[in-house]
Amino acid sequence: MGSVREIERKYSVDPGFVLPRLADVPGVATARTRRAVTLEAVYYDTDDLRLARNRITLRRRTGGADAGWHLKLPVAPGTRDEIQRPLGGAGPVPEELADLVTVHLRGAELRPVARLVTLRTARRLRDAAGADLAEVVDDQVSATTMGSTMVAQKWREIEVELGSGAPGLLDDVEQVLLSAGADRSASSSKLAQVLGPALDAAAGPDVPAPPRKLRRGTPAGTVIRAYLIAQVEALLATDPRVRLDAPDAVHRMRVACRRTRSTLRTFAPFFPADLVSHLDGELRDLAGALSAARDAEVQIAYFAERLDAVPADLVRGDVTTAISGHLAADQTAAREQALAMLRSERYLTLVRDLLALVNSPLVGKARKPAEKALPGLLREADRRLSRKVSRAAALPVGTERDELLHSARKQAKRLRYAAEAVGPVYGASAAAFARLAEEMQELLGTHQDATIARDLLQDWGVRAQVAGESSAFTLGVLYGLEEHRARTAERDFFDLWPAASARHHRRWFG
To answer: What are the residue boundaries of the CHAD domain, all occurrences included (predicted)?
Structure first.
């Protein structure tokens, strides 16, 4: 299955619009017209247009060089990832593509909603070396909705899609087009234009837009919900990319889970207690399913780098194969576990509950002004961290202290996320405190990572020794290095703590 990043801008033009001379655009040497082609596309969506409402398009297109199934996922305004699938027969939507939009379908069926026939004339903008900088297409569109009510439309539009050119080229081309009488399109896609009133009458996107301005007098629940909206939006956006095994997708989804869970814990008084408890457990299990896949991926890269730094005379046996053999199997099993979770009804129920959370009206303490309701919850989160650190400091080096430092790391992370959540209200003070909490989290995270790596190496080393493998020696050397890394991070954290726990960092929340 192919995937391309599509960066484009769309313009509406009158039927008599004359495309200006594009070879005059800075950096463009030639603007050659290609032979006109006719494209026919059938678009698929649910009865309530769940994909279109979330700026997703799924179509089967014939004609042109890229005939086939296309799924377009939004990345940012004007930027989408296009997933391509071979044309095949005229049957149902390919399972691979339907799977990628499961998080939005949530059990709803896909059906044809619109048919578009486009007469396209393209111009390739090339530099002096012959590189394709961008493509400008002139589309004459005939569109018809499909279903109980059929509405026909015709229009003309110009699309500019960036190739190898710098992003600024789009601005240069836009200036030429606007000067010639074009207007920025009010529709995000051809499908949005043909659906028109039906899309306007449908419910909005799954995740509501956050308020533009948050102040200290804003209801506290509105402030926290704005942060939760961003996390739920991130979770939905990364879902198809996790299924595609895209780089860093698992990590980003896991972070969204942890931020959401942490925020619900810290600001629990703003939400129904039973809902917080339910979501806490579900998000914990989802993050856990994702963590196994992410951890194996990170550990394979980390151990390879660590082993490269070991002097050659201390490397005995095929240590690389020994380590990768243990972790590769874990990675494969972990990915299957993560995908099984994403394809479960339990996961879809969690998504529905999260969407209900960010779309529900505020109740109780959530309606109090932010300046009155937020400081106390921040102070409590801060006190929890202090208590955990104090308890750990009183213990000798060992397993119990390691476990308490791990707990302190999670609390430092919650404190960081809490500061991020209230950042729009408290500005630079909250941002500085979030960075301080992140610094503490990073040191404790290094300690935890080294502790996990050390325990893995001990287990593998014992197995190798029992099997009489020479790699046991080098695994022992790596064990010692990880023990040293853990204790160094622990020392650095306790060195930082007196300054990090100073009162002046906390004046902004009392």
So the answer is: 217-502
